[in-house]
Amino acid sequence: MEQDTTLPRWNLDPIYPGFSSAEYSDAKSEFQKLAADFERHCATPPGAGAFRTWLLEALRLSNTAGALGETLGAFAYTSYSVNTRDTTAMNELNAVEEMALALRRADVAFKNVLAANSQEAKALAASDPAISIYAFFIEEELFLQSRQMTPELEDLAADLNRSGGDAWSRLQESVSSITGAIWDEATGERKTIVQLRALAFDQDRAVRQKAFKKELEAWKTVETPIAAALNGVKGCTVSLNKRRGWDGALDKSIEQSRISKKTLDSLILAMEESLPAWRRYLKAKARLLGIPACGFYDLFAPVGGASRAYSWNETRDVVVDTFSAFSSDMGDFAAKAFREGWIDAEPRDGKVGGAYCIDFPRSGVTRVMCNYEGSISSLSTVAHELGHAYHAWVLKNEPYALTHYPMTLAETASIFAETVVFEDALKKVAGKERLALMENHLQDGAQILVDILSRFHFENAVFERREKGELSPAEFSELMVDAQKRTYGDGLDPEALHPYMWAVKSHYYRTELSYYNFPYAFGQLFGLGLYAKYRKDGPAFADTYRKILLETGRASAVKVCSNAGFDIETQDFWRSGVKVFLDQIEEFERLVAAEVF
Ligand SMILES: [Zn+2]
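That is the input. Now the predicted structure with zinc ion docked in place:
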């Protein structure tokens, strides 16, 4: 195999040539001025007959200030994330966040002026050509206004959040980042939680088991501060939601997701319905591994060395070719991203783990960060993140206010891109290699459908209990294990569940974003639903697909989906996405039964 000696680092210069450049400092001054202008504008409600002019100016300021603020924040964050020792980047990130507080205040005031003129705002949204593109945005702002406190209280909440909810969230982050365990008594070698968790992918079951045991012991030593953090975050969320008139955290999350309760119920039911198949998959996997039953530490176990390695150039070619086979627009986009240094793929000291795609709306570009290690999952991650990047690319000429999509639709483009690449790879292999590839895919599927469902049940239970008071670490663990039993069922050894998953997942520690779980399942199944439609409709689907992405910032998820011909309020729609997995599980079971391994 051709060996890549270097993996690419991204080029941020076209955005700003460094923190000390004139371009960057000018942009910061401009942002400060725009944010102040926007705040002043919103603090001065329009006189009689002047609402239309006021609204247009407010939208202009909101769009320009928002796009610039996000671009500056993204620039600081990207710089920081590839070198976490870069204190300048960290300071710049804080400075931009500080400046953005003015935007938050302006936003509260904007919603209030809008609400005070709601009749006229709705009339303009219905008939005025310059404003009607904002119809959904205006409607949503009016709704959110009905769910906000007075400007003074919102200001206080935003201010206190930095030493309240956000501080609890940082505590979880910092405590887990310094927690670890002695790995080797003889040498005194210590491993961090991240290192221990990475061993879940090890070939050797004894290593996985040992790492799991060490990980649980490590969590045990810090369960008290982490439980305090979770109590703090959930407590803040419960109080603020009540004050703002939400009917609980789930109610708010449904609204943030731009879906309906009916949609969520149908999705959850379809997920529940798929559980028996997932348990069969886990049993087949146990057979493949030659063990009586899978424990939590076997979920990511590799099933044989049949899967091949991909060089960076191969990854580029696979992604560009498969994207191009779907649509030339998407293929050209990916080629541009590779060619122009949009991707930082090289793992190195000081760089954060994982992968992400980040948007620079002012510059109309994105950047992708990943830690490439040559496996099929690395390839899939690159495709996934470039899917996000393509979504942003499609939206790049939209007014900033119309580029925000809910978390439910945030994963549509990424899952779709990932699926296109996966299906192509699957077509090319047979036997052992096919088995390994399928297992890899099902592994991810089990996370997104089974594990996510356990997280959903857990969060429900936590909110219910937190309303009444604080929970002890033991209670959190008990709820977690209950949720895992409910979803994994007899697919996993009940003695080998993970009671500390509540400490692991940082998603639980965000005050403004509860239930950051079911949107993943939504995105996965919706992405698969789109892929099934592409297979049926062929190349003609590429245009529809682009339109769907373009609409994600302009309408509710229910509307975006119904325009694409899907009724997401019915269970049948979700079943069609689930079926893609069910078919694979059946084939996987057949291959295992035939002892293809
Ligand atoms: Zn994603």
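Residues 77 and 93 are 6 Å apart (CA to CA).
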